[in-house]
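Exercise 3.2. Students should predict the tertiary structure of the chain below and write it as structure tokens, then compare their answer with the key that follows.

Predict this chain's 3D structure.
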Amino acid sequence: MRTTRLLLPTATAVLVTGLLVAAPAHAAPDDRAGGPRTNLAPTRVDLGTLGGATSSVSAVSGTVVVGSAEKASGRSHAFAYDLAASRPHMIDLGTLGGATSSAGAVTGSIVVGTSETGGDYSHAFAYDLAADRPHMVDLGSIRGHSVPTLVDGSVVVGEFGVPGADRDGAFAYDLAADDPHMIDLGSLGGQDTHARALDGSVVVGFSEAANGTWHAFAYDLAADDPHMIDLGNLGGASDLADAVDVDGSIVVGYAGAPSGNQQHAFAYDLSADQPHMTDLGTLEGGPDSSASAIHGTVVTGMARTAAGDFRAFSYDLAAADPVMRGLGADGVDTFITDAEAGVVVGDETNYRMDFKHKKNRAVAFDLADGGRRIDLGTVPGGESSAVATSGVDGDLVLGYWNDTLDQRGNPRNRHPFVYDLSADRPRLVDIDTYDSGAEVVGLDGTVAVGTTQHRQGRRATAWILRRTTRPVIAFRSLDQVVEEGARRATVKVTRYGRTDRAVTVRYRTQNGVARAGQDFRATSGTLRFGRGVTTRTITVRILDDRRREPEEGLLLRLSSPGGGALLGTPDFAHLRIQPSDR
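Answer key:
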């Protein structure tokens, strides 16, 4: 169950970026019978600031984006921004009397976050954007600080405590109650309690028992006699059990296994006649497993195999013969980052022996199709990672790809992408430029949010995703090698999508370590793709300077697509010149 989690307005600038990552090698670049294919075309919206230099995003719900932004004074305030408003602008949510505030989560019109109060401690707040007189509501605190971490409907859940003190507690606050107030969820006899997930009126998490061990708990705020329910354990030696997600009456998490010191994934049905913790077992005889999410009756999580690999898994509690089913390939670690409506997304990780670092590749698994693996791909020479899934039936995936251009193979920049699983010919869609250094935070429906790097500082940004049939132009490869003595390098540029019209694109070389006039001849111009033409080439003259020197490189860049085309990714290529006179 997906729970919304915490993790002087300037003029709004709207930029159509429409950058698309080139299709993988097996994808046909031209159109088939049945009409042109559609591509995702993102519209980037700079949400601005509150008069200062920077702003950042925390969450999105529908068309409402929340986060924090600097005022002219340099102090940050919580903000909300409704992309669907008749006159969209950044709304300053104010404070609870202190200097700063920040919004951490939103569901519908309810924004929650933390604000300084002017006293010793910060308090959780709620702000209803749809209220007749919207204002920041102080949720108070049981003791010390209070911080909201979850919100679902009118129920806010979070934690309270005094820094350095012995006890941290969990609270719930129902904004729609007749007498709204902060409720201390208590503990299982020990000092600390931590809330992990919320669905409707049911809160789950883990709490310390009187003997110092940690047990999973559930707390139903709507029960006739609300109290913390100890979900028990699996009888193992481990002193930690944790409930991490809930959907309806079913709670999932992990607890100590019956034998040894390992942990197993569990499920617990609060509505059962005799509720008990069900051990979901392990994968392929491995030692450990841990559930991370549940949607309906399908549990997803991670498990370690007997061979030591980490694998994602799914487990259908309603199946005639429930069994833990591995997702991904043997010999590759697979990590889940999000799941929704039968679609699981995450990363496959392998080692690149040449650069001795892990190489990630974004993947999705369609649980309705037997857990079919979908390789989301990446830009040639780079790596990718999935962050979230949303849209209709989880058909949109949000993530980022890295270029790996330095000599150690470490990623220099992150570039956000979306991937439409429902497209006829799916491909990565880059939603920001090479130079922006954007970081994505979340995806809800067809709105992605994150933070981009501007010259003035970091800026809160949203990308509205729409489908288009326009053609896409990009370099075929991110990285290419040429011998210094070859005299010429030929670099391919490809047009993807529809080919029923002529399109153009500008290109130019750019100095790297290799210098124009010394290592190569500077070149620029315009490439024209006639009707039906899918590939053109750029020729760069290489100059042999007869000097002993290491490998050098330069960049080629594309810009200004014409004829209704979109600029794809990679819109730059790294040309490496291997010395011939060492």
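Discussion points: The chain has a mean pLDDT of 85. The longest strand covers residues 51-61.
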